[in-house]
Write a structure and sequence with these properties.
heterodimer, A: Rna Polymerase Sigma Factor, Chain: A, B: mainly alpha, Arc Repressor Mutant, subunit A, 79% helix
């Protein structure tokens, strides 16, 4: 009896696509904030990528192409949540560095050493998805602004403005956490040591 | 370059998005301005903190399941 033919999916394309799995999983996990939903989303993204592999241009950025498929599926599934993306402008201009400097925490960067990883993840996951995905692409995955813009289908200027506002919100969240946990004291504070 | 000019370009400098000329101008300013250098170090550290905190690997069981599904 002849060996069954190798399924079409076991191709160099599929192998190459799988080298970007960590990026897609990380992105899906931070977007959905749920490991099971993240796995469903990534699996669906890969199946769709295989189905539409003819539309991928060899030599271009496959990681960005795959991420775009994944985030588009995310938005298709969760488009009802777009309402939470309406604004991120409530914080005004907030720079954690300036805040800590004004309040006498020296050196400012020592405060960062005392912030728990889980709190940073929480702060990222609290960002509205439209802003969160820019942070994920640029800060976590190291995409250039152009690649991020191509992935998200927006102009570079939009990437820059979303990133700027996302970072301000993120730093505000980290500051609030630092105050609540006693890492710094608000209003004319000194940095206090954690025992 | 004034500190305010440096500040306005700091995000793009941290993200390595300035062209060579602009990046050199910022670099020269930072080398002569401890305050801006402190700020640059801080923003770079925040970026590294976000990256480090959000990094995670795909669960091996899911990776294997997906590999089988695609094969």
């Amino acid at each position: 009896m002849a060996e069954p033919a190798e399924p079409a999916a076991a191709t160099p394309f599929a192998e190459e696509a799988l080298t970007h799995l960590d990026t897609l999983y990380r992105g899906a996990l931070r977007l959905t904030r749920d490991p099971d939903q993240a796995q469903d989303l990534v699996q669906e993204a890969y199946l769709r990528a295989l189905r539409y592999q003819h539309s991928y241009q060899p030599g271009t950025n496959m990681k960005a192409w795959l991420f775009a498929i994944m985030r588009n599926l995310f938005w298709d599934r969760f488009k009802g949540s777009r309402k939470e993306d309406v604004s991120l402008d409530d914080t005004g201009d907030f720079l954690l560095y300036e805040k800590l400097k004004d309040e006498g925490a020296k050196p400012e960067s020592d405060v960062l050493d005392k912030i728990a990883v889980s709190e940073v993840v929480d702060a990222v996951e609290q960002l509205p998805p439209l802003h969160r995905e820019v942070v994920l692409l640029v800060d976590v995955e190291g995409f250039s602004y152009k690649d991020a813009a191509d992935t998200l289908g927006v102009p570079i200027g939009t990437v820059m403005s979303r990133l700027h506002r996302a970072r301000q919100q993120l730093q505000k969240s980290l500051y609030d956490y630092a105050v609540e946990s006693g890492i710094v004291r608000a209003n004319g504070m000194r940095q206090v040591s954690q025992s | 370059m004034k500190c305010s000019d440096c500040e306005s370009k700091l995000d793009r400098y941290v993200d390595r998005e300035l062209n060579n000329t602009e990046a050199l101008q910022v670099q020269l300013h930072l080398e002569g301005c401890p305050d801006c250098m402190d700020h640059y170090d801080f923003e770079s550290k925040v970026k590294r903190l976000v990256k480090h905190s959000c990094e995670c690997d795909t669960p091996p069981a899911f990776r294997e399941k997906l590999r089988q599904l695609l094969s």
